[in-house]
Amino acid sequence: MPVEDYDIVIGLESHARLLTETKMFCGCLTRFGAEPNSQTCPVCIGMPGVLPVTNRKAVMLGLRAALAFRCEIPARMRFDRKNYYYPDIPKNYQVSQNYSPVGAGGFVEIEADGVRKRIGLDNIHLEEDAGRLMHPEGSGADYSTVDLNRAGTPLLEIVTRPDMSSLTEVEAYMETLRRTLEALEISDCRMEEGSLRFEASISLKPLGSTTLGKRVEIKNLNSTRAVLNCLEYEIRRQAAALDAGEPLTQETRLYNETTGRSERMRSKEEAHDYRYFPEPDLGPIVVLDEWLDRIRSEMPELPNLRKWRFQEAYSLPAYDAGVLTQKRSIADYFEETIAAAEAMGAEAADLAKQVSNWLMGPILREVNERRVDIAGLNIPPAHLAELVGLIQKGTISKNIAQDLVPIMIETGDPPETIASRRGMIQISDAYAVEKLVSDVLEAHGKQVAEYKDGKKAVLGFLMGQVMRQAKGKANPQVVREILTRTLQS
Amino acid sequence: MAEEVASATAVEIARMVAGGSISAREVALTFLDRIEKVNSSTNAFLHVNQDWSLSCADLIDQKIARGENPGPLAGVPIAIKDALCIEGAPTTCGSRILEDYRPPYTATVVRRVLEAGAVPIGKTNMDEFAMGSSNESSGFRKCFNPWDLSRAPGGSSGGSAVAVAAGMAPVALGSDTGGSIRQPAAFCGVTGMKPTWGRVSRYGLGAFASSLDQVGPLSRTVEDSALLLSVIAGHDERDSTSLPDPVDDYRSALGSIKGLRVGVPAEYFGEGLDGEVAAAVRAAIATLEEMGASLVEVSLPHLPYAVAAYCIVSMAESSSNLARYDGVHYGARKGGTRGIDELYAGTRAQLLGREVKRRIMLGTFVLSSGYYDAYYLKGLKARRLIRRDFEEAFEKVDVIAGPTTPTAAFRIGEKINDPLAMYLSDIFTISAPLAGIPAISVPCGFTSERLPVGFQIMGRLLDEKTVLSAAAAFQGATDFHEAACPL
Ligand SMILES: [Zn+2]
Q1: Which of A255, A287, B151, B217 could form a disulfide with B145 if both were Cys (CB 3.0 to 4.6 A apart)?
Q2: To 5 degrees, how large is the angle CA A411–CA A472–CA A383?
Q3: Minimal C-alpha gap between A88 and chain B (Å)
Q4: Is-above-0.80 flag for pTM?
Q5: What is the CATH topology of the domain spanning A430-488?
Q6: pLDDT tens track for A218-230
Q7: Considering only residues 241 to 280 of chain B, which have any Cβ-Cβ distance to chain A shorter than 8 Å?
């Protein structure tokens, strides 16, 4: 059967490194890329007698995520120990949350192929990261080394229900999750630094079948690209096996990015028994209402909700709304520009689209070229609003406006000041234009006669003459209007 | 002067040193000399570093010479259980797996006693990772009771109790999980106290069972324990389970016990209690009554579940706490080179002792999928019931008194091959840590074989003051604590 004849059931576990200065249970720094084992102490090395002290900021970030994803938040939460032996976890247990996670249930709302869908969450929980094992290159090496700089770094694990049924949905989920965590400043989600890592679970069953397929878990997915490639491979592998009547087994597989294949790691029978139990070195955390109130009051609008609001409230195309809400600073800038333009009395008709065009075009181009944040561009929203207003009023042309942008950045001055100082203002004044027009018509009697004989094409020539006379600064629309009216009178 | 110092209390030594009548160095030399004489027959100390002890003493003397306040423990030699970390010094937790390990940091309690002017005199023997009631489970050598060298000193803080009993140190630090301070104190005829869980920082104490472990003092007099407790108690930002409540000056709070309501639980005087121990303890209770206390019968009906609850909770936690000793990141390493599993297995199989392995296996079992509810959660439930027993009893009484141990010191070899009998020897001491409450053991007499008997007084959460007052009043009326061991 082709792949289309199977129902695909996918769930994702995402590990996001929290944006904290220090580790989850000690004061060591969490900077990426430091000298191996330079950011360690007795606590994160798991020396005898050490005790953990919970990083308050990590707890607050976990709660922020729980509120953002509409999870249920426990009145008292605890940490639990997850016990297993591996050289990258020095204590041979990981402090995590199993019995009372920071968030239970909840959802992430995505848009895939133009359809909105809520991907249910099983839970979100806080935990400490493991260190990194390194195996020396070359044959003959009979040892490995471990870098514990990452050990103890705070993580938020976000576990979905098996609610995704296509790669498009998986991609939209990962993108929404990344944008949300970034916008809420919960994680920087830098995949190249391992700040956002995934594990997937996938099963296939014949379309409409009610029997659940065998669930395969895949570990070691370090980028969204890896997740999609791996799932695509896994769908083909499982479909081929089912077609051939080969039984699939519940197992854990490891994705090999080089070969693009997944390889068996362990079967269900070999799965770890983590022997979770409440961490006795840490008391329960009583979640206070005042914490939640403060987090709620500081919480920005979620990027996906903002995007949908931009589409509706400003009648913007989905593409524009997507670009503008990519970053919170840009979306804020957009809305501040609109507000400033309206305050200056700009016409509302297609104001939003015009601001969007200017923002997505010249402004973001400058932001990218200069590698600055939009706030650092030296064009406050009020100046962009003024620029758009000047074009709307016909005070300057679009071409002049383009020229103004770099000058605005350099000087920090408002566009009208620059334009008038440099003589870039258009002549839109009817009296002035009428004067120009009558001068030109007087000098070109021949062409006027041709026009009156019905040779309408000569209008272009006369327009050109007026513009030349005005040294390019006349408002072309006004010129055309007055010229036509005068010729017809 | 040296002879006077050898039998002086910590309070007296601190007064003499601070007053300049003897130097901290002379005090240290006196006790180091005693260690030299009797440690080989008792094995109380695993590590003694004379140079370091003397240099610490010199620092105190220099402070005094400069006119600075040397602290409340000025020049007081202190024996430190080898489960407490001292930067750069051997800290084995009684295990060969940490034989050559030197911690890069110092335990909070050790830092506090040093800042108070105490002079570390050595690190004491213990059952491996504090698992044991006889010190026979030490990974290095057995420790002997100075009242009868064929008998166990108790455990796991056996070395600390022997150090005090045999005059090698006026005070010692121990740790108590199920009786590890009070039981050896009783066996060796000294005073030993387990404070409220959270009263004293555990940072730097090699963990056995986190929810039960608590550091506490051993000394000859209650007054010395009160002094030492005031120094070590209090919140520590490195131990988030340490309690923020203010610390009393326990020594000056010692007061009269007139009107004190003393609870006597019938369950503590039942089957299995040695007749001579029972008689001595009943006499001790009568002494309290004579001094103005009133006796009230109380009931602790869930006592029969205490040993089981204690075993489940402590072994579960220890199976996880001890997982870090695997030969990978620090400590000794034994075993194969064919992969990590062989390294783990080789190191742990060869370097951990029988009792430790037994408890790790039992603890792993009770946390396993399918058994967690049946064992671990049931253990926690029994623990809650035991705690409630005490809460109800403390509505009627101020302290609860009874024997510390069912018998006086048993012979070495008597119980080591019968783990259950060994666990049952802790029957009277394990309830206090399960309930988290403070408890003290003071000497209250001798058996016909001249073995010390311990008298246990337990109190309400954070009410160390009343427990110490009752114990101090008892010592004021008796002289069992002044009896010298034959060694
Ligand atoms: Zn650290």
Answers
A1: B151
A2: 30
A3: 10
A4: yes
A5: Arc Repressor Mutant, subunit A (1.10.10)
A6: 998 999 999 999 9
A7: 241
Whether the pLDDT of residue A248 is over 90: the answer is no
| pLDDT tier for residue A481 given thresholds of 50, 70 and 90 | confident
Contacts of B433 in chain A (CB under 8 A): none
Instruction: Report yes or no on B271 lying in a domain.
Output: no
Domain assignment present for residue B328? The answer is no
Pairing outcome for strands A285-286 and A93-96: unpaired
Chain B positions touching A273 (Cβ under 8 A) are 368-369
Of A383, A188, A320, whose CA–CA distance to A375 is shortest? A383
Q: Is residue B377 part of a domain?
A: no
Ligand 1 centroid to Cα of residue B280, in Å, is 51
Residues 6+ positions from B258 with CB-CB distance below 8 Å: B291, B292, B293
On whether ipTM exceeds 0.90, the answer is yes
Question: Which of 97-126 (A) contact B at CB < 8 A?
Answer: none
